[in-house]
Specification:
alpha/beta; TIM Barrel; 5-stranded parallel sheet; 7 helices
Length: 252
């Protein structure tokens, strides 16, 4: 027995479609949903997932769970997903947060599969790189010391770092470039350097950099390590690859 006031299913479907189309039309002029050119990379909108560490890596690799986590975001319609939070560029940067191992060549095919799947669903894919510096600690018996610009104890992880020597700095500059090249080989659209409490900006800040050599003292000297890292990366990956920095201005 039919209900007299019941709306036929077809009519209801048409009304729902019309309502959705009206919403889409209203949002079509929203700047957040407009395409955006990030250098050579065209983003379909300005919605993106910023870098964070879900701790889904396995043996330092972005395997199935990690990959699918970012693929689902692409399916949902975002313009870009920034993977990792972040991927460590050197063995002497202990992955205290379940970080990806960007220093290992074995990561390239895993990165390639993830980026291919994200691209297939219309989103750009980038990755954040870092050296944790003193903001970490060893949970295993490993001979590699934690490094920092100066041997000042880190308050959260309680690590007492070794002061980075010239050869450490040269090596880490090269490690950043190596890691960036791996990410480029894996199909990433670009990289982001983490600069909030990690080695990159530990050199910048007089709170963590008490050096008296060419990497300490004046602002120009404290920025020297960062300039070397950025220059080394750009020389390695060329102009057609996005390189950015994510930074914070509050050091507390």
């Amino acid at each position: 027995m039919s209900t007299p006031n019941r709306v036929p299913d077809r009519t209801r479907v048409k009304e729902c479609r019309a309502s959705r189309l009206a919403v889409v039309a209203a949002l079509s002029d929203d700047p957040l949903l407009q395409p955006f050119d990030l250098r050579h990379v065209r983003l379909r909108n300005r919605v993106f997932s910023s870098s964070h560490e879900p701790a889904y890596s396995e043996d330092g690799m972005p395997k199935d769970r990690y990959r699918l986590y970012h693929v689902e975001k692409a399916k949902g319609g975002i313009g870009m997903t920034m993977t990792a939070g972040s991927a460590v560029v050197a063995e002497d940067s202990p992955p205290a947060f379940g970080n990806l191992h960007a220093y290992d060549d074995a990561i390239v095919p895993w990165i390639r599969r993830m980026t291919d799947d994200v691209h297939e669903h219309g989103a750009a894919c980038m990755i954040q790189l870092t050296h944790l510096g003193r903001r970490t600690g060893w949970g295993q018996d490993d001979w590699l010391p934690v490094l920092a610009p100066s041997p000042l104890r880190e308050p959260a992880h309680r690590a007492i770092p070794k002061q980075a020597e010239d050869w450490d700095i040269d090596r880490i500059v090269g490690k950043y470039a190596d890691a960036a090249e791996r990410m480029q080989s894996g199909g990433m659209d670009g990289i982001e350097i983490e600069s909030y409490g990690h080695l990159f900006d530990q050199f910048w800040s007089p709170l963590t950099n008490r050096r008296s050599d060419e990497y300490g003292g004046s602002l120009e000297n404290r920025l020297r390590f960062g300039w070397r890292v950025l220059s080394g990366i750009r020389q390695r990956v060329g102009p057609g690859f996005v390189v950015g920095i994510r930074m914070a201005v509050d050091e507390r």
